[in-house]
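User: Structure please.
Assistant: Input sequence and predicted structure:
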Amino acid sequence: MELLKAIRERRSVRKYRTDPVPDEIIIEILDAARNAPSWANTQVPRFIVVKNRCVMEALGETLPPTNPAKKAVTNAPCVICIIAKKGLSGYHKGVPATYKGDWLMFDAGIAMEHIVLAAWGFGLGTVHVGMFDAKAAKKILKVPEEFAVVELTPVGYFDEIPRTTPKRPLKESVSLDTYGFPYIG
């Protein structure tokens, strides 16, 4: 699938079929994420593929009842969790290089976007899941202290492509040289 087409067509999917996702496809998706750029090539993201139904149900319990992805985390054929090593990305000689501090969230976010776009290219649905109890998920997944649990995504085949959500017109989002000066007429 062409990249721009995948970017424009990809949607958040919250209902999955039970068909398993072949390991070869999961590996291709994770390889796309592994190739994501990172601060000074620190490569802080790591990936946990969850297929065990009990672990998925436990992860589902880390989402509040108001999170619309709660059922997706427990019902999809698998869940990919991104964790990231703390204290490397955004640092120079052990000191934060910018006021933003640790850049692990940026690097993990880029890697997750590679995952969701690669998955879409294989006809698979995903949804970014950030509203969950990361401390509880860390315990469930037995993540070492030097890592932060950043994000989850269920991965699976779906029957219906979710509706398109409205996006702000580009001219309302882009300025030229300084904020508020129109770039697009």
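The two ends are 31 Å apart (CA to CA).
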